[in-house]
């Protein structure tokens, strides 16, 4: 790696996620004050996932395991995706407002949000964080991070998204079904539900 040192790449990726966590925590605190009571909550692994958010960032910092040599243009592309993915996730947090939560639950006053990034995908926070981690994979070339992203984080995000959707369908019924027919789950136009 030439133009930028590995510790600087790690610092940019970890710093961008730390910024996400700070803003998300403020949004979570404000949202809890402005929303109705919880009416339905998921259980199991989907509720424990947020407590392990730090694991990929230990890998990014320490870079255990084998790494591929990353050409500088790919490394820079990875950094752009890493920071851009966080920006996309933050746009989603700001758009969803009082409904943002780390727990998978619905509230008495829950509603379908169709603006901002929610016009593009139903779960833009997960999409943004996945883009961020894919960028980190490209920027670092760390094979342990690649394996963790594709074989652990992606499946867990899919499980969480499907669990959220089940709760939202139970609470919002036809309004959420209509939304799911029009908008892809994590990738625009991909994962739309059949009529």
Can you tag this structure with a few keywords?
mainly alpha, Four Helix Bundle (Hemerythrin (Met), subunit A), two-stranded antiparallel sheet, 195 residues
Model description:
The termini are far apart. The chain is elongated. It has helices at 6-34, 45-48, 55-62, 72-96, 124-140, 143-172, 174-182, and strands spanning 38-41, 105-107. It has seven helices and two strands. It has one domain (6-182): Four Helix Bundle (Hemerythrin (Met), subunit A), CATH 1.20.120. With 195 residues, it is mainly α. The mean pLDDT is 91. The protein has a two-stranded antiparallel ribbon with strand order 1-2.
Helices, strands, pairings?
Layout (H helix, E strand, L loop, with lengths): L5 H29 L3 E4 L3 H4 L6 H8 L9 H25 L8 E3 L16 H17 L2 H30 L1 H9 L13
Antiparallel strand pairs: 1-2
Helix pairs in contact: 1-4, 1-5, 4-5, 5-6, 6-7
Summary, kept brief:
The protein is mostly helical and 195 residues long.
